[in-house]
Design goal:
This protein has 11 helices and 9 strands. It is an alpha/beta fold and 288 residues long.
Length: 288
């Protein structure tokens, strides 16, 4: 229970007096207010939790405040989608950066996002975001779904809209999107992708991390999605073939070309191709 506010009377507020060092002592009124706010802070901090913490706004719980905010977010989202009906998004659709095709082994529709097709410059990122939302909305509105994101050959400079854009987009997604999303598979992740996801960690809900899975090779997708249902662009297949001899290529490490080709070690004089770099890998960025 909150402590009652102490009565502050004229007698409790004497004139300020100087202390021995010439400073001004606190008046009785000032001390009373200090005690009051200390009591408020103590009692609020000790309130029991029933469905959420109490906040100093009409006695609502934090759960109630969050629910009201979610209703407002959903309303804004639906209004924006309605406004999009009069706009032309054919230029973004032609990029094939987000597509729906096939189902997973549980019959859930799959949304495919291709990172290399996302232009970080040249197009309005706000339009790109809402186009992607509109595609997701058609799938996620009333049913469970899966997202497969191809990070294959995507670069930070040309294909990343930035961490802030990703964070803001995540915060604008309505709750039914997050609830209906059952798997988020990231194919061909690299150091930058994993770092980006780590940076976004504080803003993502705990349930999201249970749905996130990194997939190093396309063939590992087939455990969740039948091969006939997979949407795979040609450059993704070619990249996956390179990984057969360069398994750590997505992480900036390239195998010694002699070792990758299965040739015997060549040494002698100044030649020593086998074991270049730690574990037989050339430094990041080195190609052959």
């Amino acid at each position: 229970m909150l402590q009652p506010e102490p009565e502050l009377t004229a007698s409790a507020a004497p004139a300020q007096v100087e202390d021995k060092e010439g400073g001004v002592q606190e008046t009785g009124q000032q001390q009373g207010w200090i005690r009051y706010f200390v009591n408020v802070a103590w009692n609020v901090g000790s309130l029991p939790i029933y469905g959420g913490l109490y906040v100093l706004r009409g006695g609502k719980t934090s759960a109630e405040v969050e629910a009201a905010a979610e209703i407002e977010k959903e309303g804004n989202f639906q209004r924006k989608l309605a406004e999009m009906e009069d706009d032309d998004y054919s230029d973004i659709a032609a990029l094939k950066l987000i597509e729906t095709s096939g189902v997973d082994r549980f019959g859930r529709p799959v949304v495919w996002i291709t990172g290399r097709h996302i232009p970080a410059v040249g197009l309005d990122l706000e339009r790109i975001k809402w186009y992607m939302f509109s595609v997701l909305h058609e799938v996620a509105q009333q049913r469970e779904f899966v997202i497969v994101y191809y990070h294959t050959e995507a670069t930070w400079e040309e294909n990343s809209p930035g961490v802030r854009w990703i964070r803001n987009a995540y915060e604008e997604i309505p709750m039914h999107f997050k609830q209906n999303l059952k798997r988020f598979l990231v194919v061909h992740p690299g150091i930058q992708m994993r770092t980006c996801m780590w940076v976004l960690g504080p803003w993502a809900s705990g349930g999201f991390w249970d749905k996130l899975e990194y997939v190093d090779r396309v063939e590992f997708l087939w455990e969740d999605i039948d091969r006939s249902q997979c949407l795979i662009h040609k450059f993704i297949e070619e990249h996956d073939k390179e990984l057969e001899t360069q398994p750590l290529m997505d992480y900036g490490l390239y195998a010694d070309p002699m070792q990758a080709a299965g040739l015997p070690e060549m040494s002698g004089g100044n030649l020593n191709y086998h074991g270049v770099g730690a574990g037989g890998y050339l430094p990041a960025g080195t190609r052959y």
